[in-house]
Specification:
Elements: H1 10-20, H2 28-34, E1 39-43, E2 46-49, E3 54-57, H3 60-63, H4 72-84, H5 97-109, E4 114-120, H6 123-140, E5 148-152, H7 161-166, H8 170-173, E6 183-186, H9 191-194, H10 200-218, E7 223-228, H11 244-254, E8 258-262, H12 276-279, E9 286-289, E10 301-306, H13 307-313, H14 328-343, H15 346-364, E11 371-377, E12 380-385, H16 402-412, E13 415-416, E14 418-420, E15 423-426, H17 434-455
Parallel strand pairs: 3-13, 5-6, 5-7, 7-8, 8-9
Antiparallel strand pairs: 1-2, 2-3, 4-10, 9-10, 11-12, 12-15, 14-15
Helix pairs in contact: 1-2, 4-14, 5-14, 10-11, 15-17, 16-17
Bound molecules: pyridoxal-5'-phosphate.
Length: 456
């Protein structure tokens, strides 16, 4: 077979891809019919595809390329580490400098007494760690019956058996015999879709109360933990009403429920602070991290754990771990990424420059005839598409998914946005300039105009 390179014609690459490469969250038959979009290189916030198109990446890959593409410092860090020590494990009382340095750095950055890190290769693996860790914690405390983890409908926490069970997306549970036992889901704080005619504030409070209701129904002595993203990402960038998190925090405190904040998207600057928990003013016992930890340059995730849980678990052996827990190359890349985030004040850029600029431009989209609410928190944002703003109606199921049509128009206009049902979402690299934000929103508006023409 000839060498397969960037220089091959797109159609040939697409044919090979469809024949041999099974993609996540993709219908393989669509690949065979239409072919994949093949990305060949990237720089800053810009992607180039195999046809030479330049696209503005409004999603930072999959919410992860926080420092933008093309930072050779990370490539250098990886190469240095590969030469020095490409691999060693952290099992059986062994360690190495990159894992030591990264865990110490994360303990410094994380709020409160979140001082201990259990590494994984991804966010899914980290959430699987969390399931076992919180159940083991309560067992060590003499309460093995405290094993139920409460999560939320429409949540996404990953794709492994455990993480997908924590997730609350029905189509995921329909495949593979999920959820695993002792996972319970409560409704999400999505006022636009589910708030009826009560105010967002009352709705946020009522949805938080669902946690208390579930604890009463399941029995306080059975509930181990509650897991949620500070701002729900893949569920459609659902920014909760301000009344939501304070009440959740109160309930977790009152009933001694461990709080797990899934920071896989919200972490590392996305919401304008190092962690979404700081933006939402909550005090988790465990934070799940991945994605922005290495800006996606190397696969790495983990759980940042508070003193109490780490100390209890540490009394015995935790029979859990991954070959790549604390992988030295990934850890070195993550350290270099954190150095850039810190020294270049990327989070300050989100808070003071890019975030406010995007907020102003994004919220102005609410005047578009197709757009109901426009929501934003830092550098993650969404718009709800609707045929009737006043009633917050959804499009009829047989209208073809309008979100899908809009996303296709976005691709045609060389801007990458995602849709979740009829919600359009963005999460651009944090280093995006104000000029690039203007281009992103201008292309989004053009795509909305074209979508409107197509659906009316
Ligand atoms: N948690 C959240 C909130 C996520 O958005 C994701 C991925 O999108 C995950 C966990 C799973 O992370 P990974 O894909 O690295 O396994």
């Amino acid at each position: 077979m000839d060498a397969i390179t960037n220089h091959m014609p797109t159609a040939e690459l697409q044919a090979l891809d469809a024949a041999h490469h099974m993609h996540p969250f993709t219908a393989q038959k669509d690949l065979a019919e239409k072919g994949a979009r093949i990305i060949t290189r990237a720089n800053g916030v810009w992607l180039t595809d195999s046809e030479g198109n330049e696209m503005l990446d409004g999603m930072a890959g999959l919410w992860c390329v926080n420092i933008g593409y093309g930072r050779s410092e990370l490539a250098d860090a990886a190469a240095r580490q590969m030469r020095e020590l490409p691999y060693y494990n952290t099992f059986f009382q062994t360690s190495h400098v990159p894992a030591i340095a990264l865990s110490a750095k994360l303990a410094e950055l994380a709020p409160g007494d979140l001082n201990h890190v259990f590494f994984a290769g991804s966010g899914s693996e980290a959430n699987d760690t969390n399931i076992r860790m919180v159940r083991h914690y309560w067992a060590m405390k003499g309460k093995p019956e405290k094993s139920i983890i409460i999560s939320r409908k429409n949540a996404y926490h990953g794709s492994t058996m455990g993480a997908a069970s924590l997730g609350g997306m029905v189509p995921m549970h329909e495949q593979g015999g999920l959820p695993i036992p002792d996972i319970h889901h409560i409704p999400q704080p999505n006022w636009w879709a589910e708030g009826g005619d009560i105010s967002p504030e009352d709705f946020g409070f009522a949805r938080a109360k669902e946690l208390e209701k579930a604890i009463h129904e399941l029995g306080e002595e059975r509930v181990a933990a509650f897991i949620a993203e500070p701002v729900q990402g893949a569920g459609g960038v659902i920014v909760p009403p301000e009344t939501y998190w304070p009440e959740i925090q109160r309930i977790c405190d009152q009933y001694s429920i461990l709080l797990i904040a899934d920071e896989v998207i919200c972490g590392f600057g996305r919401t304008g602070n190092w962690f979404g928990s700081q933006t939402m003013n909550i005090r988790p016992h465990i934070m799940t991290i991945a994605k922005g930890l290495s800006s996606g340059y190397a696969p790495i995730g983990g759980s940042i754990v508070c003193d109490e849980v780490a100390n209890v678990i540490g009394q015995g052996e935790f029979n859990h771990g991954y070959t790549y827990s604390g992988h030295p190359v990934a850890a070195s890349v993550a350290l270099e990424n954190l150095r850039i985030l810190e020294e270049e004040n990327v989070i300050g850029h989100v808070r003071d420059v890019a975030g406010p600029h995007l907020k102003e431009k994004w919220e102005a989209l609410a005047d578009h005839p197709l757009v109901g609410e426009a929501k934003i928190c830092g550098m993650m944002a969404s718009i709800a598409l609707t045929p009737d703003k006043a009633t917050r109606a959804a499009f009829a199921a047989d209208a073809g998914t309008v979100g899908f049509i809009c996303r296709e128009r976005c691709f045609a206009n060389n801007v990458v946005m995602r849709h979740v049902g009829d919600r359009m979402i963005i999460s651009p690299p944090l280093v995006i300039s104000t000029d690039e934000i203007d281009q992103l929103v201008e292309r989004a508006r053009r795509s909305l105009d074209e979508c409107l023409e197509e659906v009316t």
